[in-house]
Amino acid sequence: KTVCDLNLSSVLMNSNLVHRADSFFLATKMAAPLTLLLIVAVTIRAVLFRSSWAELISERVEVVSPLNAWKRVVEGLALLDLGVSPYSGDVFHETPFMIYLFHFVVDYAEIVFMVSPDLVFCLSRFLTSLKQKYALESDRYPADCLELLRSPKEMFYIPLKVAMFYLLNPFTILSCVAKSTCGLNNAIIALFILCTLKGSALLSGILLALATYQSIYPLTLFAPALLFFLQRLYIPVNLRRSSFWFFTLQYAFIYVGSLVVITGLSFFLLGSWDFIPSVYGFIFSVPDLTPNIGLFWYFFAEMFEHFRLFFICVFQINVFFYTIPLSIKLKEHPVFLIFMQIAIISIFKSYPTVGDVALYMAFLPAWSHLYRFLRNIFLVSCVLLACSALFPVLWHLWIYAGSANSNFYYAITLLFNFGQILLVSDYFYAYLRREHHLTHGLYLKKKDGTEATLVLK
Amino acid sequence: MAAHRCGLSLVCILIFSSLAHPSSCDTLEKANDNTAEKRSISEVNTDGSVAGEALNERQWQSTDAEVDRSDSTTHSEALTPAAARDEFQEELVIRPLHSGDIYASFQFRTLWDTDFLQEGQKVSHYRLFPKSLGQVLSKFSVRELHISFTQGFWRTMQWGQPFIPSPPGAELWVWFHDTVSDVDGNWKELTNVLSGIFCASLNFIDLTNTVQPSASFKPLGLGNATDHRFLRYATLPREIVCTENLTPWKKLLPCGSKAGLAVLMKSEKLFHSSFHSQAVHIRPICQDEQCSSKAWELRQTLNVVFDLHTSGQGKKEWSLFKMFSRTLTEACPLASSSKVYVDITDNPEGELFELSPATPLLGQAVVLGDRRTYSVYDLSRAETFGQLRSFNLLLRWKGDSGDMLRPLLHAERYVAGFGLQTGEIHTVIYNNHPYRAFPVLLMDSVPWYLQLYIHTLTVTSKSRDNKPSYIHYQPAKDRHRPHLLEMLIQLPPHSMTEVTVQFERALLKWTEYTPDPNHGFYVGSSVVSALVPSMVAMRTNFTQDQPLFSSFVPVKEESSYFVRVYTEPLLVNLPTPDFSMPYNVICLTCTVVAVGYGSFYNLLTRTFQVDEPSPPLSKRLANLIRRMRGVPLLT
Description:
The complex is a heterodimer of chains A (457) and B (635).
Chain A: H1 2-29, H2 31-50, H3 53-59, H4 70-81, H5 96-105, H6 109-126, H7 132-136, H8 152-167, H9 170-177, H10 182-198, H11 201-215, H12 222-232, H13 242-270, H14 275-285, H15 296-301, H16 308-321, H17 323-329, H18 334-348, H19 354-361, H20 377-401, H21 406-440, E1 454-456
Helix pairs in contact in A: 2-8, 6-8, 6-10, 9-19, 10-11, 11-13, 12-18, 18-19, 18-21, 20-21
Chain B: H1 2-20, H2 22-47, H3 50-67, H4 71-79, E1 86-96, E2 102-112, H5 131-139, E3 142-151, H6 156-159, E4 169-176, H7 183-198, E5 210-211, E6 231-236, H8 243-251, H9 267-270, E7 275-286, E8 294-306, H10 308-311, E9 317-319, H11 320-324, E10 337-343, E11 353-356, E12 362-367, E13 370-378, E14 394-397, E15 409-416, E16 422-431, E17 438-446, E18 450-461, E19 464-465, E20 470-474, E21 483-491, E22 495-505, E23 521-523, E24 527-533, E25 560-566, E26 570-572, H12 582-605, E27 608-610, H13 617-629
Parallel strand pairs in B: 1-10
Antiparallel strand pairs in B: 1-2, 2-8, 3-4, 3-7, 4-6, 5-6, 7-8, 9-14, 10-13, 11-14, 12-13, 15-16, 16-22, 17-21, 17-24, 18-19, 18-22, 20-21, 23-26, 24-25
């Protein structure tokens, strides 16, 4: 076992060294296309901001939720100006930091919203760091697996693809033009991933605390971040090792400590704890049933009163529950675990918007090597595209034309979520299958020498 | 004889109970107090106060009327002369409106100089004041109570100002005494009790439609309480008013509907009208100008507007019998004054209409900033009823009525926008005064399911931004309290001021929708309260013999008068879920969640294996036998 550990650690050390050399290489050669991409992305947003579409987009329920609508931020600031606590009503559900951020930059809000997704693209440049290990480990794998590993050329374009997938994704653009604060939350999560991949435990802990403070659900990203650091520091995940516990406690301390500091600061900014029920109580108890792309609104609008609490608990536990089994299964692959967690949050959270969907979709180019194992990617992309087109149509039929009813819109949200679940589980399947092939060879044979089929048992 | 014995036993019981209960002792003490007070009144008399004398005389009259009652009553009265200190007045005001409609307003007032709220004193003997209300007042420490039930909408533009305005539906506002610690608890119980008393759905008043206006609803009676923590205001715009509300209301009158003006209140006529409003106002007031003694005033009003013009086959004439299908035969014997007023201000020479029987009595009153002339019929005089012992007032129109009067202050409201997602509330306030600007207080109480955005509030008059000088805004809490928006707006002379605010419609839980959800949800009227500049000097001095209809709102200064205008209630549609779907939705959503759970579970718990086809059945059986025989197995 120790030999294996040593082997792994030497490989990782190698990859680390190469990664450093490589990132310098990337920085010089990738600058031109990235700048071009950035200019295109900013232009699209600027044009849309100035067009009459901006107002229409900012009213869409798919793009903004009660948690992150820009209209509600403005309302919160207006209440503050009137001398009323923004949390005394049920309009404003942003955290106190958001009030103070926008209190100062409310006039430059457009710039803030244009800059925030650009922060995300920084993430893309470092996403590759882990993939590179496969390139170096090629000698460990069966010979026929070489085609499963990505060539350095492929790896080279991944950051650009990730940036493109995020910056030019219509979902991101819509959410940015609507000035949904979801973009800022995404930026915080992206920075957290960046810091984690860069190996800065302190910054990573602080940013994770900030993300948790913003919308509670990123709490589940604690596990993948911890696993990543453990792997990076060559600490095996062993409950009997003191080094494991030492680092875990250290990271948990950074995380909890900064969470306490941030919450305490918010208390001192406002002088009351009103924001706790108004932000986190609102997220957990789902009192606002305004339609959105999630599963909660219609379910709890139609729920029998005596089962409401039970189902709220079930649905909220559902979001957090997957952390434990996924961390066990994917403990060697924390980056994929991060992707899985973000995807699960954005599917099962109480007030999802398309901005959340865009965040996990930005990861998809990073898993381009899984493409050959995806079983129903065509079906899923068709479903997602069709749903995206049908959302505004059925909304119009229900709310404005009056010729449809709520069931139509509900059906589309169901289908959309079904598509997302299929997409995520498909990627999960493909990842596990690739892992299996990496250890057992790509072309498996049956006992009698014929070509074998892999099944889950 | 039996009656005498009965009376005697009653006296005995009263004496015993007075020995046993301290509360009864209080009534006796009260009697002593009263004699002392009476002495003070006679002292005032020597000073030459006519009002005091008149008051005294009336009281004696009313006690005389009491003597005719049964023996037992006389006995108990002999014990507690305190009861003689209350007084009842009734009047009916008829105003022909410019639109051709008839506005009839009944006013009944019971005055009682007792104090329900005094510590340690329990009022247990009631005479004219209804016991049901008196007990409510003392139990819930109510300082002031105003309740109105209205069917129809008062058209200010056509009808001018009513004497006492009220919004469509039910309105209740209560000032509690400032010793009350649990105001919300008291309020909840009070609404439930009143709901029983008036047979109305006041029990639907809860925290979600109760507000505490900071400036719009000041106490109308004694005491200048300003702490709006003790005020509760609620409206039920959807409340339908009908006979079952009228009957308990009539029962509160000392004569019931047996005698006096109340015999005119036949429900089939009253509810066959354009507007019907009945109200109860209870408040403490001053007995005299110096305010040396306090009295509780119970004022019951009933306003009704008949559209006789269209139903009268083109003939413009009306009579009491035509309106109420009754005539008057007597005043209420318990009333100290009983009068009928007919507004003849627009008809000084009798050229517009003709009144019969004619009356020599004319009265003048300054009401709502205008000096009006009235023909007065005193029902306490026998000659009013003439030979037939019946009084049927008849009015025959001769000419066409004059121009439409434009009320100085007028407000209306509507919802703008389309679709079920957002909308905008427009409130338009008109100041028709040619050269005076005046401030108005606008109060809006909007239910929580219409999410107001206060940053979209705009106030424009004469197409210029008119910033309110005072804004009190309390945002709604979902399922807990409504929005309350109060602002002070300066209305420029001869102008139209438009207040708009945007809102978003919420999707509710399926159990929160009212029956017939696609009918829409009502939003109560906004309230515009203002001190409007008066054309004539208002009477600020206190006089007892003022007609009741002109003495409701206290006048603080001569140059202006208080007006409250209610706008239309709004009917707003909300998006609705499909009410037949709960099972389906629960099943379908859970299926999708289960698909997610199931696929993850599958991938998490299983591992990849090469699929080896299982051998055929015959081979497996053969292997089983071979194993038993100990022979090598087939492959």
